[in-house]
């Protein structure tokens, strides 16, 4: 099996890099990943509600959602047991164990009843899902009718004055730093997965095909990241 086949975006791949994942995010995003996640979180309802964070990883978004409102309960789902183990360590330090549940599972077959959550989200994870439309349809299914389904994802900038610089960062800096701190194959995969991700309008069309309504596109950081927000059908 070649290196890129081994680094395939699966839960097994993230198991291998789980302990260094947060550090890698901070360095490779120049610290902007926290700001991007705050923009995502602002799209989700607060109060006495249940929220779902798909591809929760080490639970950064789940923790931020629970910290925003003391009445909110959050379920985080991820295919990587090692990433969830890192998340459980964080929960022990924050004291949020009673309001955050971390579940190992597949975003393409969510183990929840329909209309369970007031809102759902996925950050930097949808590009690793083999059937994106199916995962988005599942998020719509488990979200209450009209509730937000928000997707935050890295994208390769195609237009604008700073697009060449942003592309250089994604194509050269990310694989180099990732290979240095973790594994070369995993972060060559990351660069390739970002480059292969659909253009924003095309991904919004996939969300619509999955049954989500009123899909909006928000361009962040000169197009290096996009936030997509739709509404669950019903």
What would you say this structure looks like, in words?
The protein is an alpha/beta fold. It has one domain: 3-Layer(aba) Sandwich (Rossmann fold). It has ten helices and seven strands. Strand 1, helix 5 and strand 2 form a beta-alpha-beta unit. Helix 8 runs antiparallel to helix 9. The N terminus is likely disordered.
Tag the structure with descriptive keywords.
single chain; 234 residues; alpha/beta; Rossmann fold; 7-stranded mixed beta sheet; 44% helix; disordered N terminus
Brief rundown of the structure:
The protein has 234 residues and is of the alpha/beta class.
Q: Kindly give the count of domains.
A: 1
Write the element-wise H/E pattern from the N-terminal end onward: HHHHEHEHEEHEHHHEE
Please, what is the average pLDDT?
Answer: 84
CATH class: Alpha Beta
Backbone shape: globular
- Placed side by side, the strands forming the largest sheet appear as 3-2-1-4-5-7-6
CATH topology: Rossmann fold
> DSSP helix count?
10
Low-confidence stretches: 1-7
**Strands, total number:** 7
Q: Quick one: biggest sheet? A: 7 strands, mixed
Report the sheet-strand fraction: 15-25%
């Amino acid at each position: 099996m070649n290196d890129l086949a081994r680094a395939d975006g699966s839960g097994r791949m993230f198991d291998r890099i789980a302990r260094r994942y947060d550090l890698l995010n901070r360095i490779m995003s120049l610290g902007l990943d926290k700001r991007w996640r705050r923009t995502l979180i602002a799209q989700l309802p607060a109060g006495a509600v249940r929220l779902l964070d798909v591809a929760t990883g080490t639970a950064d978004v789940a923790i931020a959602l629970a910290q925003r409102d003391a009445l909110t309960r959050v379920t985080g789902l991820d295919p990587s047991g090692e990433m969830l183990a890192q998340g459980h360590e964080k929960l022990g330090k924050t004291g949020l164990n009673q309001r955050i549940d971390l579940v190992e599972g597949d975003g393409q077959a969510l183990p929840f009843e329909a209309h369970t959550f007031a809102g759902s989200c996925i950050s930097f994870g949808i590009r690793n899902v083999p059937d994106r439309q199916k995962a988005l349809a599942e998020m719509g299914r488990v979200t209450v009718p009209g509730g937000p389904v928000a997707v935050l994802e890295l994208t390769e900038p195609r237009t604008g004055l700073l697009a060449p610089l942003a592309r250089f960062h994604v194509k050269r800096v990310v694989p180099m730093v990732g290979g240095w701190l973790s594994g070369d194959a995993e972060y060559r995969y990351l660069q390739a997965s970002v480059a292969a991700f659909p253009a924003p309008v095309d991904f919004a069309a996939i969300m619509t095909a999955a049954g989500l309504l009123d899909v909006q596109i928000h361009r962040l950081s000169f197009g290096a990241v996009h936030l997509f927000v739709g509404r669950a059908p019903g």
